[in-house]
Amino acid sequence: MPRDNQVQKAEINRETVIGHTPEHPRADEYRALAKKISENQMFVSPKPLSVDELESLLVVVGLMN
């Protein structure tokens, strides 16, 4: 999800983006995400990474060393 100040504006008003500004493009992004989750048919539980695997991944993406 790309960052957007509309999220913070809605949060300040104690609302969701969809409730605060339903016509905003960010609201459409959340609707699309909800639809993908709701229509998902891949019922798979992810396996957590080991500490070694996580550290290797962090090195690859440049967040470590």
Question: Key terms for this structure?
Answer:
65 residues, single chain, 57% helix, mainly alpha
* Computed structural class: mainly alpha
Helix percent band: 55-70%
Q: How many structural domains are formed by the residues?
A: 1
Uncertain segments are: none
**Distance between the amino and carboxyl termini:** 27 Å
Total number of β-strand segments? 0
Mean pLDDT: 91
Largest sheet: none
Provide a count of the helices: 4
Beta content:
under 5%
Order of helices and strands: HHHH
* Rounded Rg: 17 Å
Shape descriptor reads flat
Characterise this structure:
This protein is an all-alpha fold and 65 residues long. It has one domain. Helices cover 57% and strands 0% of the residues. It has four helices and no strands. The chain has helices at 5-12, 17-20, 25-39, 51-60. It is flat. The chain starts with a helix and ends in a 5-residue tail after the last helix. The mean pLDDT is 91.
At a glance:
The chain has 65 residues and is mostly helical. The protein has one domain (5-60). The protein is built from 4 helices and no strands.
Write the layout of secondary structure elements.
Layout: H1 5-12, H2 17-20, H3 25-39, H4 51-60
